[in-house]
């Protein structure tokens, strides 16, 4: 029982880390990593109860990482 709970937490943790890495790579590609990290700090201070993965997803939405990354590709 404990093992399955631990592996589930690792999986959730690994998914969260993967999401954060993907967001950071996209922000780097769009040359807005600094803006992203400033938003991450601001959000984490204002809402300390949020998980790091959630904070990065919200910050990425605010600085529009996906949209800017797609524009740079075209």
Question: Can you walk through the features of this model?
Answer:
The protein has 74 residues and is mainly alpha-helical. The protein has 4 helices and no strands. The protein is flat. The mean pLDDT is 84. The protein has helices spanning 2-29, 33-46, 52-63, 65-73.
How would you concisely characterize the structure shown here?
This protein has 74 residues and is mostly helical. It has helices at residues 2-29, 33-46, 52-63, 65-73. The mean pLDDT is 84.
Top keywords for this entry?
single chain, 74 residues, mainly alpha, 4 helices, 85% helix, flat
Share in helix: over 70%
Number of helices: 4
Head-to-tail CA distance between termini: 50 Å
Q: What is the N-to-C order of secondary-structure elements (H for helix, E for strand)? A: HHHH
Q: How many strand elements?
A: 0
What does the overall shape look like?
Answer: flat
**C-alpha-based Rg, rounded:** 14 Å
Low-confidence runs: none
Structural class: mainly alpha
Task: Determine the strand fraction and express it as a percent band.
Answer: under 5%
Indicate the mean pLDDT.
84
Tell me the layout of helices and strands.
Layout: H1 2-29, H2 33-46, H3 52-63, H4 65-73
